[in-house]
């Protein structure tokens, strides 16, 4: 058998020999737990309902990659709006960076789908069928489990698999309209093999993650967790233990005998057994801590019973926990806000200038121009893209230029939703007038749209000097 090397610096989810320690966090009750559970259910309801909600007759969120059309909260985008996607993603990332500097891992403990689904759906299933955390730990330690326990474990896995398939289909419905997905399911995989493969793949990954991998995703896979040390400082809000107040640890009776000899921590380890990543918050800030607040509720419960003030484990900054001056607004926060402001300004300018159609002039293949006697003819195609979710008519109008004549066979182009088309455009000039290359321009506007939404496109014409 392979010999495991000793691990000196370890995470709460590992034993000292490097093997994994299965964690069954104990149940906890308290104000943060109640608020988190309410938020979890609100977030799950919001996520499940998003693909079904309609805004202006279109889905609130639908990322139809196959058809390259994207509906996001009333906006319709196509593949040419990649810059907008950049602004959306960078804004989300930067908001997370700023929130982390202020409030630490609030995202992980309160809103990350990993936490929301693990604590709000998968862990409750396990608890319902197999019992409390203490029972499950005892069951795990039994080398000869009774048949009934094996049956219950199989039931838990079946329920987890059903839950994983449900969540996977909820995810897929962001990419395939849910009404279409509902039609595919009874017809079987052959009716939509690609969609089936994605659904099956997501189901497998979600089942693996929540049935087995769990906290390891946060500890090993998630890059955001690894970035904490550079995103936070001693003034960022975190879940921490007030060592000044808690140490030295001692029994409640010791404190009654001599109130100054021991601190407020009675070393009951409630804060440890409720931790989903298996760490002891009393050891100081650790990258394994996902800021779930379970240890705050657990310790507050203990303090209530002992009739001592709450907050031995609390939300505070590292400066606050050591009794030093706390600062919310500081250089790092101002820097992040300034960058955020620049991004928000650039993003809003880009969104304001965005048109719901695209028009580009493309030179047709072949010679640069055609000479017929004294006539010079440049041939182009006007490429029109309708980014709207409904049919639209586009009006093409050449801008007059002395000595230049346009031939535009299609001045009114009708395009179906998200469709594109090419319309021929010829620019005719007289040899030597203009002398050499020149630019010809066209105005393109959607019928019924205000004048300010007109797009002017340029056709770069080539011509001999004489
Ligand atoms: S230390 Fe506390 S806040 Fe951090 S993960 Fe464990 S229980 Fe949650
Ligand atoms: S729950 Fe509170 S009192 Fe109990 S060990 Fe943790 S910090 Fe100490």
* Protein structure class: alpha+beta
Major sheet: 5 strands, antiparallel
Shape: elongated
- What is the total domain count? 2
Distance between the termini: 89 Å
**Percent range for helical residues?**
40-55%
SS summary, helix count: 17
Catalogue the unreliable spans. none
The proportion of residues in beta strands is: 15-25%
Q: What is the averaged pLDDT score?
A: 93
- Catalogue the ligands: iron/sulfur cluster
Radius of gyration: 32 Å
Task: State the total count of DSSP E strands.
Answer: 16
What does this structure look like?
The longest helix has 26 residues, at 147-172. The chain has 2 domains: 21-354, no CATH class; 357-461, Immunoglobulin-like, CATH 2.60.40.10. The strands form 5 sheets. Strands 8, 9, 10, 12 and 14 form a 5-stranded antiparallel β-sheet that branches. A 4-stranded antiparallel β-sheet has the order 13-11-15-16, with no helix packed on it. It is α+β, with helices and mostly antiparallel strands. A hairpin with an 8-residue loop joins strand 15 and strand 16 (455-461). 43% of the residues lie in helices and 19% in strands. The chain has helices at 31-49, 82-103, 106-111, 113-130, 133-141, 147-172, 178-187, 193-213, 215-221, 223-226, 228-231, 243-246, 252-257, 270-273, 294-306, 318-321, 331-353; strands at residues 54-55, 58-59, 61-64, 69-72, 75-78, 237-241, 313-317, 357-363, 370-372, 375-386, 392-398, 404-407, 412-415, 420-430, 438-446, 455-461. Helix 1 (31-49) packs across helix 4 (113-130) and helix 2 runs antiparallel to helix 17 (331-353). The protein is built from 17 helices and 16 strands. The radius of gyration is 32 Å and the shape is elongated. 25% of the residues are buried. The chain binds iron/sulfur cluster (SF4) (2 copies). One iron/sulfur cluster binds at residues 241, 246, 265-271, 282, 298-299, 302, 312-313.
């Amino acid at each position: 058998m392979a010999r495991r090397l000793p691990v000196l610096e370890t995470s709460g989810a590992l034993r000292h020999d490097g093997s994994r320690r299965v964690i069954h966090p104990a149940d906890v009750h308290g104000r943060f737990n109640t608020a988190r559970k309410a938020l979890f259910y609100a977030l799950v309801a919001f996520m499940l309902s998003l693909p079904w909600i309609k805004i202006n007759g279109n889905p609130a969120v639908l990322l139809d990659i196959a058809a390259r059309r994207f509906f996001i909260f009333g906006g319709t985008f196509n593949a040419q709006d990649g810059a907008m996607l950049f602004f959306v993603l960078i804004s989300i990332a930067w908001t997370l960076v700023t929130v982390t500097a202020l409030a630490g891992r609030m995202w992980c403990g309160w809103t990350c789908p990993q936490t929301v689904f693990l604590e709000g759906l998968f862990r409750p299933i396990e608890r319902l069928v197999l019992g409390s955390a203490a029972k499950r730990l005892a069951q795990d330690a039994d080398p000869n489990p009774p048949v009934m326990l094996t049956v219950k474990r199989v039931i838990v896995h079946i329920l987890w698999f059903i839950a994983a398939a449900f969540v996977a289909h909820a995810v897929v419905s962001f990419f395939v309209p849910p009404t279409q997905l509902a039609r595919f399911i009874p017809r079987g995989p052959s009716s939509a093999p690609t969609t089936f493969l994605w659904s099956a793949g997501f189901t497998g990954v979600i089942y693996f993650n929540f049935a087995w991998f769990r906290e390891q995703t946060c500890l090993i896979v998630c890059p955001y967790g690894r970035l904490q040390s550079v995103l936070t400082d001693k003034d960022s809000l975190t879940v921490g233990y007030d060592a000044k107040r808690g140490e030295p640890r001692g029994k409640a009776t010791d404190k009654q005998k001599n109130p100054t000899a021991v601190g407020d921590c009675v070393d009951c380890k409630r804060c440890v057994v409720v931790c989903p990543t298996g760490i002891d918050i009393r050891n100081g800030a650790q990258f394994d801590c996902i800021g779930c607040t379970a240890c705050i509720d657990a310790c507050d419960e203990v303090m209530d019973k002992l009739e001592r003030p709450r907050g031995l484990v609390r939300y505070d900054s590292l400066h606050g926990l050591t009794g030093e001056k706390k600062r919310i607004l500081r250089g790092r926060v101002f820097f992040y806000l300034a960058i955020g402001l620049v991004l928000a300004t650039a993003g809003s300018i880009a969104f304001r200038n965005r048109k719901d159609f695209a028009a580009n002039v493309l030179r047709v293949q072949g010679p640069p121009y055609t000479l017929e006697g004294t006539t010079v003819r440049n041939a182009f195609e006007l490429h029109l893209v309708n980014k709207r979710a409904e049919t639209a008519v586009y009006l093409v109008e050449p801008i007059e230029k002395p000595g230049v004549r346009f031939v535009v066979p299609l001045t009114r182009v009708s395009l179906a939703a998200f469709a594109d088309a090419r319309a021929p455009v010829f620019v005719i000039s007289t040899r030597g007038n203009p002398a050499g290359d020149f630019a010809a321009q066209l105005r393109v506007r959607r019928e019924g749209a205000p004048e300010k939404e007109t797009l002017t496109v340029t056709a770069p014409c080539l011509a001999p000097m004489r």
